[in-house]
Amino acid sequence: MIKDYDLEIHYHPGKANVVVDALSRKSYCHTLITESVPPKLKEEIDDFQLEILPHGLLNELRIQYDLTDRIHQAQKNCEEIGYLRGLMKLGYKTNHHEDEQGTIWFKDRICVPFDPALREEILSEAHNSKYYIHPRNSKIYQDLKKHFWWKGMKTDIAGHVARCDTCNRVKAEHQRPAGLLKPLDIPEWKWESISMDFIVGLPRSQKGNDSI
C-alpha cells in the first residue's frame, strides 16, 4: 500500500523536465528542437535517414527506406534489365511490365537487377536481421518472392545460408542417423581379404592425376 511509505509528491512542469513525458507536456511544447539534440545522436539520426515530424501533442519518428528507389536506379545500368526490356518490346515477356517511373516488375514483384551488393543486402535483411531467426532456404524464398524477383534467386539464397557462420555452428542437420559401424572381419590367412580406399577430388598434379 502506498500509505505505508513516507512520500513527498512534487509537481514539475513539462518544460522543466529533462525528458518530457506525454502526461505533463503542455500543448505549446509540441515541437522538438533539433539543435538541442547531442551531436552524436544527430549524426545517427542522419545516418538512418530519420525525420522528426510534429504531430498533435506528440512527435513521431518516421523511417524512410529507399530500397525501391535504389533498385530503380540500379535497373538503369543493368545489362540484364536492358535485355529484358528488349524482350518486353518484342512481346516475349508477357508477365513483365513497366510502371510510370520506368521500373520493371514481374507481375507484382519488383525485378532486382544484377547488383551483388544490393542482392546481398536483401538476403541479409531476410536472414540476419533482428526480426528473423536465421531461417532456412525455403522460408527465406517464401518471404522474398512476395516482393522481389530475379533470376537464380533460389541459388543465391542457398549460397547465402551456406555461408552463414551462425547457421553452420548452431543449426543441426536434420538427417536420419547413420547405422552402427561394422568392423572388418580379421582375416585368418594372408591375401584372404583385399580392400581398397579411394580418395578423389584432389588438386591435379603435374601429370593430371587427382585421386589416390
Can you describe this structure?
It is built from 7 helices and 6 strands; from the N terminus they run αββααβββααβαα. The protein is α+β, with helices and mostly antiparallel strands and 212 residues long. It folds into 2 domains: 62 residues, no CATH class; 104 residues, Endonuclease III, domain 1. The strands form 2 sheets. The protein has a 4-stranded mixed beta sheet with strand order 3-4-5-6, with helices on both faces. Strand 4 and strand 5 form a beta hairpin. The radius of gyration is 31 Å and the shape is flat. The N and C termini lie far apart (82 Å).
Q: How are strands sequenced across the largest beta sheet?
A: 3-4-5-6
List the uncertain runs: 24-33
CATH architecture annotation name of the largest domain: Orthogonal Bundle
Report the order of strands and helices. HEEHHEEEHHEHH
- What gyration radius follows from the Cα positions, in whole Å? 31 Å
User: What number of domains?
Assistant: 2
Overall mean pLDDT: 78
Find the structural class using helix and strand composition: alpha+beta
